[in-house]
Amino acid sequence: RELPPSARDLLGGELLARRFAMRQPTLQLPSAVVAAAVAATCFWWQPAAAFTCASDTSLGSTAFAAKKGIAVDDSTMKWCTSQIPEVWPNSNAAMTSIRLFKAWDATWEADQAAAWDNLAAYVTNAGAQVLIGTQITCDEAEDNQAWEWTKALVKKLHPDHVMGLGIGNELELLQYKGTDMVPESCLKKIWEEGYLWQQFQRMVSEFDDLGFDAVPVTSVFTGLGLSGSPFYEHAGKARVNSFLVNATKAYGDRFAFTWNFYPYFDPNYGLDAGTSDECTNALNHAACWGPECSVPVQMRMARAKMAELATQTNAAGGGKLWIGETGWSSDLAETLKTNLKPCTTWSSMDTFRNYYRDFLAWDLDIGGNQQAPDHVFWFTMRDSHNFGANEYFGLITECDEPACKVASAGYEAATYSEFDGPAARSCGDAPLYNDWSRGEENCKNKCTLDPHCKYFGIWPHSHNGHYWCKLTSTCTTWTSDSHQVSTHKKGPASSPEPIASTPSPNEPEPTPAPSPAPTPMPVPAPTPATSAPTPSPSDGSGDDPQGVKDPGSSTDKEIPTGDQDMPVGAASRPLAHTALLLAWAVAAPLVYNTQ
Q1: CA atoms of 358 and 321, how far apart (whole Å)
Q2: 239: which strand partners?
Q3: Which among 339, 464, 465, 333 is positioned nearest to 387, based on CA atoms?
Q4: What was the pLDDT predicted at 316?
Q5: What is the rounded CA–CA span in Å between residue 448 and residue 433?
Q6: Interior angle at CA 96, CA 93 and CA 98, nearest 5
Q7: Neighbours of 272 (CB within 10 A)
Q8: Which segment of 17-21, 428-432, 489-493 scores lowest on mean pLDDT?
Q9: CA nearest 225: which of 195, 254, 247, 198?
Q10: Is the pLDDT of residue 405 over 70?
Q11: Given this model, what pLDDT does residue 317 score?
């Protein structure tokens, strides 16, 4: 599935140059030695196991799992597509569909080939389908580059594995972003001059030429799009209705209606009467999945308006209904600006857990004798940033985190004890991983994720939040080192408050070295050097230097924590939620009066 970086260096043609040049600049490797090193690497390397996050909390079975999926955040797409869960977190059902907001982004300096290969491996192994997106902005050159990346990625996937193509995301909210970021000329270009429709037709045509002519196509809108007759239509702002009329006439039932619904941000909810921080009434309507709860009510309204469009245009308007995003945030999202911000229960872990549990159990019934949605995506796989503001919708907190977010207090996927050091030596046994980490916690998590790892060694801080990390399955020999290395030994999972505990596999533990005397090895400790692996970049500020970014593109900029320069998470999110509040102020009366 994915080569560890050390093996990737060997097999990728660098032939140990980076590792040895960094540690021993004068070392010359004869070809026979290089060949032996390659052979040794191939011998001990094994493909990564299917990823599942660990937890001691089971939320029960997943109803209609084949019609539910997870939206992939930017950090997962950049850094850890090898860690897409093949089983729904905290459940036992296979997770077989994902939504990608984009194939790649010009600001990302990660390994595109590895990210795509690991994604394709997940899709193949899980028999999964992908709803893949591409952006629509006011920068045609950037849109065309994004589309080229999308085509390159779908070529790696069989049509059976592509659920649909999404062109543009929440474009009706661009009007609320401010003229400094979205000038009137941009809105005019997209809606009045037909740029969205022209690009949509061109991209679908090229998509068809690649052999995907039977795959559904869509553009994603929000609840604001539901306000209108039947859909939102305002000159100079957004012409959702005109677009949907054109799309359904041109593509019939192949066109899927896709909507993003977020009760968490709904400004129509308020605190309980007579309280300053309680919100029981709002939770009873928003954080649930019954027919009279927020999201099913909006889906029912969408179905009714799709049928109305079909009647008006005599076209196929009653076809597929997809929910592109829905979810809940815990902790408190920094983008939450409604009156419910003071209510701690609104963003609590209990509310998040219960909303997610009920989502898994939901039978897709939306009431009103309306057809159920054809597919629903939870937002998101990992916690994310929205224009630099932290949000916590993820089912996992970050890349390399082995535990699911939903777990009992104090749960650890594995425990560790001090085995040796700090001392001027490290385990000399064959490494499973021998490369940079973002600190002891990150190195430990890498060991936890690898079922073969039983020991991890961590070096002192080197540069830019980077620490050298070595993982081994045994530790029976030692190699001397000029740095003080701390070596830790893996133990079983820890659960102070167990709930349906899932035990970690217990493999025989390696025997420690019988003597503390180090056995010299020819490779000294790593030192910072120009040939060291390049630290993963921070995306910088949230400003868009060119054009206007689509809400489905990478406008969210990642903010590093401390001196670490690898992000906690990033995801393609809607426009700033102040805009969403305005949007819902328009749409809400229609939504909540729909039966």
Answers
A1: 20
A2: 233
A3: 333
A4: 62
A5: 12
A6: 125
A7: 14
A8: 17-21
A9: 247
A10: yes
A11: 58
* Residue reference for tokens 């996937």: 157
Calpha distance 247→243 (Å, rounded):
6
Q: In the chain, what's the furthest Cα-to-Cα distance?
A: 84
Integer angstrom CA distances of residue 231 from 227, 303, 393, 581? 5, 12, 28, 18
What's the pLDDT band for 37 if we cut at 50, 70, 90?
very low
Q: What percent of the chain has pLDDT over 90?
A: 70
Tokens coding 549: 């970014």
Strands 466-472 and 255-260 come out as unpaired
Q: How many residues would you count in the chain?
A: 595
Residues 582, 112: Cα–Cα separation, whole Å:
37
Strand 97-100, strand 217-222: pairing: unpaired
Whether the link from the prior residue into 422 is cis, omega within 30° of 0, is: yes
How does the average pLDDT of the chain come out, rounded?
81
What are the C-alpha distances in Å from 233 to residues 223, 226, 249, 395, 421? Answer: 13, 10, 17, 36, 68
> Token digits for 550?
């689509």
122: how many CB neighbours lie within 10 A of its CB? 22
